[in-house]
Amino acid sequence: MESVARDTPEKIYRIPIDPTAGLSHASALEAARGTGAKGPVLAQIANVSERLYKLFWEQDASLAEINPLVTTESDDVIALDAKINFDDNALFRNPTISSLRDLDEEDPSEIEASKHGLNYIALDGNIGCLVNGAGLAMATMDIIKFYGAEPANFLDVGGGASDEQVAQAFRVLLENDKLRAILVNIFGGIMRCDVVAQGLVNAARTVDLHVPLVVRLEGTNVEQGRQILANSGLNMIVANTMDEAAKKVVQAAA
Q1: What's the pTM?
Q2: How far apart are CA 180 and CA 159, in angstroms?
Q3: Partners of 239 in beta bridges
């Protein structure tokens, strides 16, 4: 699907859906016609589309995908594979879905992080990222890649992380055997940078930081925050800008 979207986007047929009305039978038929389907196959594809949308809506899914959906020589329509993602914030409304969770199929680090309210996804690189805010976390990973390295994870600690949450974030990162350096990139908006800096220092003192640590702070009371880091006695590399931080952490991990 990714290659089709990139190379031949005109082959993708899109149908807008009004969430207050749902997917109508007429729209489902229109989508089926967009695939080039005819005859008995047309109604079957429309039926699959309607049922897929019903599942997506009623089970609070964030993704419901059938790929591939094939037709046989006898004009049967069969879903050969499917993928469904569910909104974690809505699982309380779907206990049946929650009961299907198989922890053996999930990354142990991601499971441990979720227990502490951390949004963590393991990746294949060697530079750990500890960031507040999903948008800043994505930008941090992008700039690490821009300078020729690879992020080891996505990790959003949120806007009000406690010392214990930050310490747990460090522990999760340090469990990665491939880790060569950590970049902490914090924007202090609602939270003041001096409070964030003290929390980082407190957390760092409770774990065994055996890799270089680069810290970039920006926002309210940033100078006080940088002074707290400088006076901490910890072996931190402080950067003033995101660009400088990325360069320093890539160099430290080399």
Answers
A1: 0.69
A2: 26
A3: 216
